[in-house]
Design brief:
22% strand; five-stranded parallel β-sheet; FAD/NAD(P)-binding domain; 8 helices; 336 residues; 2 domains
């Protein structure tokens, strides 16, 4: 087994990269492992997406995010985080999924943890580390409806782009920003889009510049919206709905279930982290972000559990400084 790292970071999103930068600046021996692409969640955002925030609030490592726009695009975000990774020469290993996390409680061990990762070839690699920081977010785990037909090939929990649905009936399920944006883009690309939402109205969290657009399109009938309505089954070319009006069937050649996402805490639990069953918030110190398991830290949206609207890149980018500060102040001496 290789010598233990001072810090192993799970997840190469903005919070994970910010943690790596802090570790790099502190002279720690560290590595970032990521099962997908660099900033994998952003990579899977809609291709023409514009961030909700300005460029300076997405910056990490003190490197400026230059854009001619008020709010940068997804493509610009991908380019920026690639450049940051290269500028710092960050130790990032892609295509390595974490499949196990084991605590080492034996006296005299140089490492506290062994993290097992698996590559595309199916081979597993043990990675010993004194400290581990999970920055895995939540975007990989959609909230499923658990209805018949949810696994059909024309059903997706992720929206990418609208062109392929020109003149096709499309159903978008959800009532927050992602559903509103998808419905608007699909409508403007010529799709016959219907919005279905289980509540009586759109979410209050919809951004102020999106709300009037979607509300006006609904009001004028350009985007039919069915509120207080649930999807009960997805068929080959239609969906079944249930509401106070009764049951109905509407055509759908594509269905986007944009019903939110949740963090996977199974590996944290495996290591002994206590997780609130209702909120999925792992027990942690708010200042240091260390969990109830010594040496095991959280970064980014994972801190907030199901409340995914609490932690964004804007505030999660500072978690790395807190984590590395806790490590170097208590255990390690920074290398020159």
């Amino acid at each position: 087994m290789t010598p233990p790292l001072d810090l192993l970071i799970v997840g190469a999103g903005p919070s994970g990269l910010a943690t790596a930068i802090a570790a790099h600046q502190a002279g720690l021996l560290y590595e970032v492992v990521e099962k997908g692409a660099l900033v994998n969640s952003i990579f899977h955002f809609p291709r023409h997406m514009t961030f909700f925030t300005t460029a300076e609030l997405l910056e990490i490592g003190g490197l400026p995010f230059v854009t001619p726009y008020e709010k940068p695009t997804q493509v610009e975000g991908l380019k920026y985080y690639r450049k940051v990774t290269d500028a710092y020469g960050l130790h990032v290993t892609l295509g390595q999924e974490v499949v196990g996390l084991r605590r080492l409680d034996e006296p005299g061990q140089a490492a506290r943890f062994v993290v097992e990762t698996r590559g595309a070839d199916g081979e597993t690699t043990p990675r010993p580390a004194r400290h581990v920081a999970f920055a895995t977010g939540y975007y990989d785990h959609p909230n499923r409806l658990g209805i018949p037909g949810e696994e059909r090939p024309h059903v997706s929990h992720y929206y990418t782009e609208p062109h392929g649905y020109y003149r096709k009936p499309v159903v978008v399920v959800g009532g927050k920003n992602s559903a509103a944006i998808a419905a608007l883009e699909l409508y403007r690309a010529g799709a016959e889009v219907t919005l279905v939402h289980r509540h009586a109205q759109l979410s209050d969290s919809i951004k102020y510049w999106i709300r009037p657009d979607i509300e006006n399109r609904i009001k004028e009938g350009a985007i039919p919206a069915l509120f207080d309505t649930c999807v009960t089954e997805i068929r080959a070319r239609s969906v079944l709905l249930r509401s106070a009006r009764g049951t109905e069937e509407i055509p759908a050649e594509q269905v986007f279930l944009l019903t939110g996402y949740y963090p996977d805490t199974s590996l944290l639990r495996q290591a002994g982290v206590r997780v609130d069953e209702k909120t999925l918030v792992p027990e942690h110190d708010a200042a240091t972000l260390e969990t109830n398991v010594p040496g095991l830290f959280l970064a980014g949206a994972l801190v907030s559990g199901k409340q995914t609207g609490r932690i964004f890149i804007e505030n999660g980018r500072f978690h790395g400084e807190a984590i590395v500060g806790a490590i170097t102040g208590r255990v390690l001496t920074a290398r020159s």
